[in-house]
Amino acid sequence: MKTVPVLDAKAHLGAYLEECQEQTILITKHGRAKAILIPAPEDEAELERVALAFSPKFWLLTEQAAARIEENGGIAHNEFWKSVEQTKV
């Protein structure tokens, strides 16, 4: 993994986009990790899975669902999808 400061990443983004195809690029600000450049999956479904893996809203919804299942056995299928539509993950 290569580590670069944010100012360097901004100045050379195109080069780092190419380089991240070969190795992960960790972007730091004031010495602290802020972002990671990885190659995007070519498969659209895999890209969506990667995006969801880093979505706080998705994980909150998942945790709430697990708590409801633990508490009362869950919710009806149609209620779940209504909730998803309202949440806009």
Question: Within the largest sheet, what's the order of strands?
Answer: 1-2-3
Report the structural category. alpha+beta
Poorly predicted ranges (pLDDT <50, ≥5 residues)?
none
**What would you call the shape?**
elongated
Estimated share of beta-strand residues: 15-25%
Mean pLDDT: 92
Biggest pleated-sheet summary:
3 strands, mixed
- Helical fraction equals 55-70%
The helix/strand series, from N terminus to C terminus, equals EHHEEHHH
The end-to-end distance, rounded to whole angstroms, is 30 Å
State Rg.
18 Å
Number of beta-strand segments: 3
What's the helix count? 5
Count of individual domains = 2
3D architecture notes:
This protein has 89 residues and is α+β, with helices and mostly antiparallel strands. The chain folds into two domains: 2-37, 3-Layer(aba) Sandwich (YefM-like fold); 44-87, no CATH class. 57% of the residues lie in helices and 17% in strands. Strands 1-2-3 form a three-stranded mixed sheet. Strand 2 (25-29) and strand 3 (32-37) form a beta hairpin. The two termini are 30 Å apart.
